[in-house]
Write a structure and sequence with these properties.
It is built from 9 helices and 12 strands. The protein is globular. 33% of the residues lie in helices and 22% in strands. Pfam families: Glycos_transf_2. It comes from Cryobacterium adonitolivorans. This is Glycosyltransferase family 2 protein. InterPro entries: Glyco_trans_2-like, Nucleotide-diphossugar_trans.
């Protein structure tokens, strides 16, 4: 087990306990994961921590890159999804009071993790803490989200109206610490008690919507998601590649999430509106949306990883 620590090393046979267990899932991540790992020592400051990286069957040299590093424990796995990889990494980590979920295409600012941990410890009921994230060019990355509703199915974030916009793009919303419905899962510090109470991420999503589901289930169980601008990070986005298939997974999982939380009647409306939205995007030139429309209307064309091709309304 690879552990970075600020104090004396544990004696032989003594159980390793750290402040934070950092977990990363890689898939063809050679362009970015080294920068993430390089940023961690300064990001953790004086905290003790471990780093476990689960590689989901990369074919681009990521396993060789990771094998050459001494600052992380690497677990090789079949690609059974992002959520499964995170859960596997947590199980492979030493005992810790918190779990830091990291995308391989992120980097953390110095002392970012102590700032996140301070919020988690200070706010009763906080189960998840998200930092202020910037894009590669230094601009603000709008990572905060409202919960899914019928009004927000169209993704009309440009309106900046809460009734229509799931993504929060109002700059002022990123200036102060506050609770949110959920935040993009590229960098999240999670109370281990919260993680265990929810039995980790829901692996049935395979890719996309797992962090939405996790935060909303946490809220149902009394755990809040809190945003803080005091901790900083950078996220490239799309580090493992984006395609028509991943876009289709994203849209299907949004329908599945909404159905699981609201029931079939409202889910049929959400499903129909998603078809309309994706058809419009396709007509306007977003070619990936044609693949999504076909998969929505023909279950046999849906990505098999989701196991959502047995019924017309995906579940």
């Amino acid at each position: 087990m690879t552990v970075r620590e600020s104090d004396e090393a544990p004696r032989a046979g003594e159980q390793v306990v750290v402040d934070v267990a950092a977990v990363v899932v890689t898939y063809n991540s050679t362009r970015h994961v080294a920068a993430l790992l390089d940023s961690l020592p300064d990001a953790f400051g004086s905290l003790t921590y471990s780093v476990v990286v689960v590689d989901n069957g990369s074919t681009d040299g990521t396993p060789d890159l990771l094998a050459g590093r001494s600052d992380c424990t690497v677990v090789q796995a079949l690609n059974d999804g992002y959520a499964a990889g995170i859960n596997r990494a947590v199980l492979a980590s030493p005992e810790a009071s918190t779990v830091l979920i990291l995308n391989p295409d992120a980097t953390l600012d110095p002392d970012a993790v102590p700032q996140l941990l301070e919020v988690l410890r200070r706010r009763p009921g906080a189960g998840i803490v998200a930092p202020r994230v910037r894009e590669e060019d230094g601009s603000l990355s709008p990572t905060l989200r409202r919960g899914p509703t019928l009004g927000r199915v169209g993704g009309l974030s440009f309106t900046r109206l809460a009734v229509f916009a799931e993504r929060i793009e109002i700059p002022g919303e990123y200036e102060s610490e506050h609770e949110v419905d959920w935040a993009v899962g590229a960098i999240l510090l999670v109370d281990r008690r919260c993680f265990d109470a929810l039995k980790g991420l829901d692996e049935s999503y395979f890719l996309y919507s797992e962090e939405t589901d996790f935060s909303l289930r946490a809220r149902d169980a009394g755990w809040a998601t809190v945003y803080t601008p005091r901790a900083g990070a950078m996220h490239v986005g799309g580090g493992s590649g984006e395609s028509a298939t991943t876009h289709t997974m994203q849209m299907l999982n949004r329908v599945r999430l909404y159905r699981r939380r609201t029931g079939d009647l409202r889910a049929w409306l959400y499903f129909g509106m998603t078809v309309v939205v994706e058809t419009r995007r396709a007509v306007l030139g977003q070619r990936a949306s044609w693949t999504t429309v076909h998969a929505l209307l023909r279950p046999s064309l849906r990505p098999p990883q989701l196991r959502a091709n047995s019924a017309f309304l995906p579940s």
